[in-house]
Model the fold of this input.
Amino acid sequence: MLKQVVVVMMCLLLGNAVKYLLGVSVPGSVFGMLILFLLLKQRLVKESDVSKFANFLLDNMAFFFVPPGVGILLYLDMIKKEITPIVGASIISTLLVFLVVGIISGGRNHEQHS
Done:
């Protein structure tokens, strides 16, 4: 399993390096996942080289959400005061995403059927 941890951590390290070199605000872990995906897709890394560690991370995913959950509890009073704008922004942004995706995918489907 050590090999699997090393493969995943090397992808994370490379992802952080890419983030640093590009100077963008995208998290290094996103670049790391993209690198791992590309390595798997090109068969430079076998699925068996990461599957046990990936399954371990997936099985324990709830553990990784504990710190954000505690953070929310710390700011619960502030959240209660601002619940209307939070819910409003969530509803409006969700509807906008639905609208944009509908327009984009509707245009594609129309073009395909013509």
User: Anything to note?
Assistant: Residues 83-113 form the longest helix (31 residues). Residues 77 and 83 are 10 Å apart (CA to CA). The chain has a mean pLDDT of 89.
